[in-house]
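Bumping with the actual sequence this time:
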Amino acid sequence: MKEGQAPEGRPLDERGTGEAPPGDQRALKVSKYLSKHLRHQPERIGITLDDSGWVDIGTLLAAAAAHGFRFTRAELDHVVAANDKQRFTVDGDRIRANQGHSVTVDLRLPPAVPPAYLHHGTVARHLPAIRAEGLRPMNRHAVHLSPDRETATRVGARRGRPVVLSVDSGAMHRDGHVFHVSANGVWLTAAVPARYLRFPAPH
């Protein structure tokens, strides 16, 4: 084990434990709570998103506290500002998730012209289905695509050893497929047929 590293290669924190500092753990917990209830299960804590996915922050904080998870407006603002993926947007006294919903919302994003190529991070076990069916939104409203390989690699790494596919988004757009881009730079489209995908060469 290298000096300055924790088991499993995790960097040591300032206490030398290899665990995230308490403040970081708290922010991560709040972020996951927001994702769960602003994207997937608002009804679980008795809140209702409007047609565009917004909810009043005071209502959200009160509902969370009533269901056993109390956090402050300051903590919420910190998570929104510090989240490296910019998952949430605050507009005055309301908040919404920027994308990734499984509940029905209309983010009212205008159509956008994509770059010539976009990227999608996945793992090897999904490749046979992708080769056969292309990319589908599954339980989301749209397929999520990344603007660069680095971002797609991080997305794929959440599920295991990442595999990055290139998407001929320029050709898709010319063929009539519609794209949108979320507030945090994620490209969205209804589906990606397999003919527009470029797979990495087998090793």
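The tokens above came from a reply further down the thread. The chain has six helices and nine strands.
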